[in-house]
Q: What sequence folds into this?
């Protein structure tokens, strides 16, 4: 099996099935399968699980590029779209559970909350940003948009930052987990900043003078 | 048996006539109390058979007839950050807290002060069961059959002076028994307070049990406060100190986030938490598809307590 086949026939299917894990776990808890339970406040637990899972997938999506270059695995890029779409799907489910089960389809209330309550503003904004990213995730769209696709999909950084802020502002008191997410995100963003600076430095040194000054 | 060998009866052993003639009532009352204890303990969703049973009487005047939450819900879904910050942590970490031996110090503006054992604190007070609504500031609620006695009856024993305008109650500070006090999640020890009239109100309860059995650690053993018309964070747990003070105490949540948590903390659907609405609440144990219920002013105890706040701006004094 060559690399292409390995990704298509083994890695991607396995990752797909594993990515359904949280949903399966929630259903098992919801229906009491194998003694699992969602606990005394099942809606809160479901909301929390779906939201965190979405954030986890966003983080994984952002880890693909560093792993690609640091491990030397160029083909790992092929799973990034799947990870990103799972991030979007979990975010959408998180929102649907919120508006249907928690807020009982109170759209007027939602509108007010989006304006009045900052943690909902940023959460909703993060979800909204993921929509065009999901819609333009197909091969056809990538071809159609060309260079602009890359620019558009940089919005994933904004969406992830907003997601972490949403989590931080939603927590009552113990900000440990949101801060851990923020730290991981900071590292992932720092990696990109450093890398893009180095590439710009190398680009100018290639096209410019023979001995370009070392950029720090 | 020869006459000389017959055992003599001491006068103190003779049953007093009033007890002798009222034995039937005495037995009936004891049976009723015990029966109540047994009945509550045997309910489905009740406590385990190993839980220590209490003797108490039911108080229907102050109890709601809503169905109580299960013992499991009440004892496994708790905010007690000293034992961990997840809702399931306090039960998992309950073993750290040792409710005996336990002492309570009473100080401040009172004639009777000192350090008392929990046995001395509890002895004079017959226990009652009150089925109260419990409303957390996080917008969830439960119905809980507490067992305790009015705080006012306890406070009267210490003869507070006229300078005592507020009562301040403090939780244990001991990182061996409450390990999360090692982390600055909140300022430790946890402090709460009530205005004297709130403390003396018949609804305000000193609680030592739940579901007819001894209060578990995660619910604030061995002694906690329950103020049913206020948000749950006012109902301070594992009390070691009661102080009569002149100035309004700085309660822990107010010190931590003054914009979000006040001193009065009366349940009020009209005054939102800055980050979420207080108009509705989710009843624990109602299930996945249950709708949220409307929050009632003063958690449904308005008839009993609204008078305490006549003329007060409840938005300003939240």
A:
């Amino acid at each position: 099996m060559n690399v292409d086949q390995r990704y298509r026939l083994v890695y991607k299917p396995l990752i797909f099935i594993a990515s359904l894990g949280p949903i399966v776990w929630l259903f098992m808890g919801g229906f009491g399968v194998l003694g699992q339970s969602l606990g005394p406040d099942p809606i809160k637990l479901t909301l929390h699980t779906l939201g965190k899972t979405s954030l986890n997938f966003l983080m994984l999506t952002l880890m693909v590029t560093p792993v690609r270059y640091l491990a030397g695995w160029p083909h790992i890029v092929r799973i990034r779209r799947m990870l990103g779409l799972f991030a979007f799907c979990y975010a959408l489910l998180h929102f649907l559970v919120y508006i249907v089960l928690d807020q009982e389809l109170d759209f007027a209330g939602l509108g007010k909350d989006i304006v009045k309550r900052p943690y909902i503003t940023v959460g909703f904004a993060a979800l909204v940003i993921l929509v065009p990213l999901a819609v333009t995730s197909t091969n056809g769209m990538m071809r159609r948009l060309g260079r602009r696709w890359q620019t558009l999909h940089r919005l994933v950084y904004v969406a992830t930052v907003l997601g972490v802020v949403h989590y931080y502002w939603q927590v009552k008191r113990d900000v440990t987990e949101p801060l851990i997410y923020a730290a991981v995100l900071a590292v992932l963003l720092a990696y990109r900043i450093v890398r893009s600076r180095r590439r710009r430095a190398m680009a100018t040194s290639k096209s410019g003078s023979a001995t370009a000054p070392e950029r720090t | 048996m020869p006459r000389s060998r017959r055992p003599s009866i001491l006068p103190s052993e003779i049953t007093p006539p009033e007890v002798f003639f009222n034995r039937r009532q005495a037995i009936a009352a004891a049976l009723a109390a015990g029966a109540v204890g047994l009945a509550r303990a045997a309910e489905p969703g009740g406590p385990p058979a190993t839980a220590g049973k209490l003797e108490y009487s039911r108080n229907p005047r102050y109890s709601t007839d809503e169905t109580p939450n299960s013992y499991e819900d009440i004892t496994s879904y708790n905010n007690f950050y000293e034992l961990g910050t997840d809702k399931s942590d306090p039960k998992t970490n309950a073993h750290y807290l040792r409710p005996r031996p336990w002492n309570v110090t009473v100080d401040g503006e009172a004639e009777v002060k000192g350090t008392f054992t929990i046995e001395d604190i509890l002895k004079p007070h017959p226990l009652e069961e009150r089925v109260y609504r419990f409303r957390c500031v996080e917008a969830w609620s439960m119905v809980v059959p507490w067992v305790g006695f009015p705080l006012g009856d306890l406070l009267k024993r210490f003869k507070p002076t006229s300078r005592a305008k507020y009562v301040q109650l403090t939780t244990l500070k001991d990182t061996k028994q409450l390990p999360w006090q090692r982390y600055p999640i909140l300022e430790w020890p946890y402090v709460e307070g009530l205005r004297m009239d709130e403390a003396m109100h018949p609804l305000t309860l000193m609680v030592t049990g739940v579901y007819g059995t001894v209060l578990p650690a995660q619910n604030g053993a061995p002694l906690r406060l329950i103020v049913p018309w206020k948000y749950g964070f006012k109902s301070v747990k594992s009390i070691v100190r009661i102080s009569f003070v002149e100035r309004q105490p700085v309660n822990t949540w107010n010190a931590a986030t003054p914009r979000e948590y006040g001193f009065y903390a009366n349940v009020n659907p009209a005054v939102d938490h800055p980050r979420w609405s207080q108009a509705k609440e989710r009843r624990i144990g109602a299930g996945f598809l249950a709708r949220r219920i409307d929050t009632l002013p003063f958690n449904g105890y308005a008839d009993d307590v609204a008078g305490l706040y006549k003329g007060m701006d409840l938005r300003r004094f939240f």
